[in-house]
Specification:
Helix content is 38%, strand content 21%. The protein contains 15 helices and 19 strands. β17 and β18 form a beta hairpin.
């Protein structure tokens, strides 16, 4: 059974993700990757249990551990790149409160590669852990990664331009790890900051950890009431950011990716990297500003590593996960927030105006329970071989009026269908076509 999913190892705390699993996984990482390992976590209630198990496992292999406490995942990654040989983040990102997980971080601050995950998984299942002599067990030190991370972001954006605008911003960290960074980052950039759900609380009482348009209605209302320039919300580990415009409207994540793509290409033409699930709007903008789009498999690790390979100027996913390579090659909610403020400051325009000026696409997303999902996708691939198809990740079928992507979930027995067109009716028709293909072969 595969241990690693699309984004680390996750499960329900004390059911799938137990202290024993965490300790053995840490032993595997410590056996595979020697040296100083930084460990941090989001705010989940089970975080202390798993963090202590991870630290114990690492120490048993002889690895010194730096305990970073509660911090956003990109903040931990920024620290690892500068001060450690590897890292482990205890987080389940956007999943509900009962979930938790473990993500490995490479020495350069990027997510652990698929090849390294496979090597760690082999050690985990073999039980061939390094056991240090009593005199060589690791020791624990502590560090606070937050000030350096906030200073790093501030140094890379045009802080003076932002400070000169005196923005009013409503920040909703969702009681997650951004509670200890984003409000302070924004205040340092001269913003008047109003906070919602900014207390550290792993039960997430204000809303679910995933900041979807339906989950952040309080943020929308607060932006309108305060006549704020912007609303910002994060998932639990703050590697993603989503935005509410000055009219209190949720900014679709694909639109967010397109806005930032345009702003970045205006500054420096080059390569944009994004998954095959992202909107065609990205390609429209790249074509307009002398950019080139490279499509990857779904997952931030694939986007980040392709960006490193080709020297991309920007990249990200259509889920609020934006990657700014001059800062670090990972999704970064804090850098996304500061970059959005810089874009508004430098353009002198309201976010609502920037959103409304973009061409519009319509999309439909469906999912179908599919126990033998891999076999179903093989049969669909054979059935559509006469079509214009991209097999980078799943099966993406292009039609004159849009496209439909059919791909298996990395963590569940389901097949996802994404469709996009210029009209709602066109997107619905393409989605129905994709769902029909799945159902025809889902015996």
């Amino acid at each position: 059974m595969a241990l690693f999913g699309t984004n680390g190892v996750r499960g329900v705390a004390n059911v799938d993700m137990t202290a024993e699993v965490a300790m053995n996984l840490a032993k595997s990482i410590g056996t595979f990757r020697r040296g100083r390992i930084a460990v941090g976590r989001d705010t989940r209630h089970s975080g202390d249990m798993l963090k202590n198990a991870v630290i114990a496992g690492l120490l048993s292999t002889g690895c010194p551990v730096i305990d970073l406490g509660i911090a956003p995942t990109p903040c931990i990654q920024y620290y690892v790149k500068r001060h450690a040989d590897a890292g482990i983040v205890i987080t389940a990102s956007h999943n509900p409160p009962e979930y938790n997980g473990i993500k490995g971080i490479a020495g350069d601050g990027t997510e652990m590669s698929r090849q390294d995950e496979a090597a760690v998984e082999q050690i985990y299942y073999s039980g061939a852990f390094r056991k240090a002599d009593w005199s060589e067990t690791g020791r624990v030190s502590t560090a606070d990664p937050k000030p350096e991370y906030i200073d790093g972001i501030t140094a890379l954006v045009d802080a003076a331009a932002i400070q000169g605008r005196h923005f009013t911003v409503v920040a909703d960290p969702g009681c997650g790890a951004a509670s200890v960074t984003t409000p302070f980052l924004l205040r340092g950039l001269g913003c008047r900051v109003i906070t919602l759900n900014a207390q550290v609380d792993g039960t997430f009482p204000g809303r679910n950890p995933e900041p979807t348009g339906n989950e952040i209605n309080d943020l929308k209302a607060a932006v309108r009431t305060a006549k704020a320039d912007l609303g910002i919300a994060h998932d639990a580990d703050a590697d993603r950011a989503v935005f509410i415009d000055d009219r209190g409207r949720f900014v679709n994540e694909d639109v967010l990716l397109a806005l930032m793509t345009r702003y970045r290409l205006q500054q420096k033409p080059g390569i944009i990297v994004t998954p095959v699930s992202s909107s065609s709007l990205i390609e429209d903008i790249a074509r307009q500003y002398d950019g080139e789009v490279i499509w990857t498999m779904v997952g931030s690790i694939h986007v980040a590593r392709k960006m490193m390979e080709v020297g991309a100027v920007f990249g990200g996913e259509g889920n609020g996960g934006l990657i700014f390579p001059e800062f670090q090659h990972c999704r970064d909610g804090g850098m996304s927030a500061a970059s959005m403020l810089e874009m508004l400051a430098k353009t002198g325009r309201k976010l609502s105006d920037l959103v409304d000026a973009l061409p519009s696409y319509c999309s439909v997303k469906e999912k179908i329970r599919c126990p033998d999902k891999d076999a179903v996708l093989r049969e669909i691939a054979a059935a559509v071989r006469s079509e214009k198809v991209d097999l980078t990740d799943g099966i993406k079928v292009y039609r004159p009026d849009g496209w439909v992507l059919i791909r298996a979930s990395g963590t569940e027995p389901i097949v996802r269908v994404f469709a996009e067109s210029r009209t709602d009716a066109g997107a619905r028709k393409l989605a129905d076509y994709g769902v029909g293909l799945v159902n025809d072969h889902n015996k």
